[in-house]
Amino acid sequence: MARYGKKSRRTVKSAMHRYKRGSLKSGRSGRRVKSRKQAIAIGLSEARRKGGKVPARRRSSRKKAARRRR
């Protein structure tokens, strides 16, 4: 079964298009995105907001590492 839906694919595609043109901006700061990975992440988050079929965002593993140390 497909992980991503058509709507999410289109949204990521448009984000990548904006990134390549140099018009994709990030968050509150509004700085231009320079990383390809960041451009994809922005596209996926936009797709989530629009209600597309996208897997849940990965959480950082810092908490798990801190628990292991204790």
Give a quick rundown of the structure.
It contains three helices and two strands. With 70 residues, it is mainly α. The protein has one domain.
For this entry, give a set of tags.
mainly alpha, about 55% helix, about 5% strand
Count the DSSP helices. 3
- Structurally, the number of domains stands at 1
Strand content: 5-15%
The largest pleated sheet is described as: 2 strands, antiparallel
Integer average pLDDT = 86
General form: flat
Structure description:
The protein is mainly α. It has one domain (6-55). It contains three helices and two strands. It has helices at 6-21, 36-50, 62-69; strands at residues 25-26, 31-32.
Topology:
Elements (H helix, E strand, L loop, with lengths): L5 H16 L3 E2 L4 E2 L3 H15 L11 H8 L1
Antiparallel strand pairs: 1-2
Helix pairs in contact: 1-2
